[in-house]
Amino acid sequence: MGLMDILIALANDMFFAAIPAIGFAMVFNVPPKYLAYCALGGALGHGLRMLLLTQGGMQVEWATFTAASSVGLVGVYWSQKLNVPPKVFTVAAMIPMVPGVYVYKAMIAIVEINHRGFSLEIWKIFAENFIKGTSIIAALAIGLAMPSLLFYRRKPLI
Predict the structure, then answer these.
(1) How far is CA 51 from the centre of its chain?
(2) CA geometry: angle 69, 72, 76, nearest 5 deg
(3) Residue 44: partners with Cβ closer than 8 Å, 6 or more residues away
(4) Nearest residue to 91 via CA among 14, 11, 15, 23
(5) How far apart are CA 158 and CA 12, in angstroms?
(6) What pLDDT is stored for residue 33 in this prediction?
(7) Sign of CA dihedral 21, 16, 138, 157
(8) Using an 8 Å Cβ cutoff, are 44 and 70 in contact?
(9) DSSP alpha helices (H): ranges in the chain?
(10) At what angle do helices 60-82 and 87-94 cross, to 10 degrees?
(11) Which of 46, 86, 118, 145 is deepest in the core (most CB within 10 A)?
(12) Structure confidence at residue 149 (pLDDT)
């Protein structure tokens, strides 16, 4: 894959990640003047995760954690610059990275077990997808919270 192909794929990924970020920002009642920041955060996070997955060879959990931490850091910067809470930008920006496919496959496996009875093969599908989905959600939560904890901690550690 050439550099131009990678850049086109990255631009495509970032554009289509910005759309749900804007949509969820609107659902969360983010003021219209901050919607562009939410879109940019969603695009940056999803684009970075895609680059780490495809070009860096990282596992999806670590790529998601790195992207979420990066969006969290950018959100802290924007919040200090614009004097608003960082969650205004960061929560909606995380939505495009939610692991819907893994959770959906885990849920379908549970329905199959309920419908057809227990099968080791179906249980394996459930366990793999459930663990991967849960790990990605944990990576999003920790990556989102960590920058705020680092920059807004009021009490000394000791």
Answers:
(1) 14
(2) 140
(3) 14, 67, 70, 71, 74, 93
(4) 23
(5) 47
(6) 94
(7) negative
(8) yes
(9) 3-27, 35-54, 60-82, 87-94, 100-116, 120-152
(10) 150
(11) 46
(12) 82
Which structure tokens are listed for 94? Answer: 């995380």
> What is the Cα–Cα distance from 39 to 90, expressed in whole angstroms?
10
Six token digits for residue 126:
């459930």
Q: Please say whether the dihedral angle defined by the alpha carbons of residues 14, 19, 21 and 22, taken in this order, is positive or negative.
A: positive
Where do we find the tokens 């192909």? 5
Residues 55 and 49: beta-carbon distance below 8 Å: no
The confidence score (pLDDT) of residue 16 equals 96
Over residues 36-55, the pLDDT tens digits come to 999 999 999 999 999 999 99
Q: How many CA atoms lie within 13 A of 132 on its CB side?
A: 18
CA-CA distance, 52 to 60, in Å (whole number)? Answer: 8
pLDDT, tens digit, 9 for 90 and up, residues 51-101 = 999 998 999 999 999 999 999 999 999 999 999 998 998 999 999 999 999
